[in-house]
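Input.
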Amino acid sequence: MLTIVTENLYGTYSPEIKNILDRSIGLSTPLSTYRGKQMHHTLRYGMHHLFRVIVYGDITNQEKETFTYLSKRNAINYGYERTEIIFLDDLTDLEDML
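Output.
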């Protein structure tokens, strides 16, 4: 399982998280394969279980839709079977989840 905690910035990840995701392309090989009737990079280390994204901060419904779509696409690209997206008003709300 991978859990990402990020502030919402216009319906996407914070720059620091985006940078980490961009630099993790090495988890895939340069070769391509079909997964879910779409072409993706071949996974270097196989499938994973859960891609969880916890988003905090002010967020509109349209930004939630954008973030949900983006996170699901990232999960497919990185080889995760399932995606979970949690929206919080404030980062301190995360303490209640633990």
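Helices lie at 15-23, 61-77, 94-97.
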